[in-house]
Protein: Undecaprenyl-diphosphatase
Amino acid sequence: MNYEIFQWFNGWSGHFSYLDRGMIFITNSVPYVVIALMLFLWFIANKEKRAEKQYTAIYAVFSCLLGLFINAILHLVYYHPRPFVAHHVHQLIPHPADSSFVSDHSVLVFSIACTMVLRNDSWKYPILVWAIIVGISRIFVGVHYPADVIGGALISYGVSMFVIQSSKKLEPLVQVVFYMYDRLTKHIPFLAKYNHKDLSQDR
Structure:
């Protein structure tokens, strides 16, 4: 069934140039969107919500790093050939023929989405939809199976839940992040208005 579902999604590629370009853009833009989203969480919120949003950004980064670390270990111990290695597919982007399971992109975007859902962030549903579209794009462009995306989402949910539940134990590390930002504001004074000081009770 994994391959059959892959064929259905990937079968749409190569027929509509605008759809191909859109999916390529979505899948290639993930690192830039992630950076923009973290900056958005850190800087955009009003004063009352700023600490809450900054904690969400930090927890999301922790979840991404932990999820990608787990995935790196998984890739070392288990190899599953990518669709374009095992089958004739419509491959729209170049990619190394490394292990397919699970998708790094899916771990990255779903770690952020799951963190925002668990934190009940106001942007949780748009970000969750974006994560799902990114997962579909990885299948569409021919570099991942559906199981790779679903596996990435499950790992992401697990690590996000772990990070949120471990928030008290992680607090010293979070404070290191805030301390580093405080030091940065000494050199870039206009960033000081986004400081977390006196706001941490809102987390």
